Amino acid sequence: xxxxxxxxxxxxxxxxxxxxxxxxxxxxxxxxxxxxxxxxxxxxxxxxxxxxxxxxxxxxxxxxxxxxxxxxxxxxxxxxxxxxxxxxx
Length: 89
Hints:
By secondary structure, this protein is mostly helical. It has one domain (3-87). Helix content is 85%, strand content 0%. The protein has helices at residues 3-42, 51-82, 84-87. The chain is elongated and about 65 Å long. The chain starts with a helix and ends with a helix.
């Protein structure tokens, strides 16, 4: 296994990590921003108010995009397993 192969594998792994995390992180970020604006507008300064909406947003995102995420992970894993002989040369 040469350095180029290792770098390519690392790059694909980071890309998959980004693809899996980005939708959930963006959903929780948007919900957190909306809750923060609501808290600023209403003068409610409760620290725990944003946790439940963020958790719900994360669950809804996984529910809606979970099939797509699983499909991408299965394709990535298949590609890794199929290419094992090429990586060992």
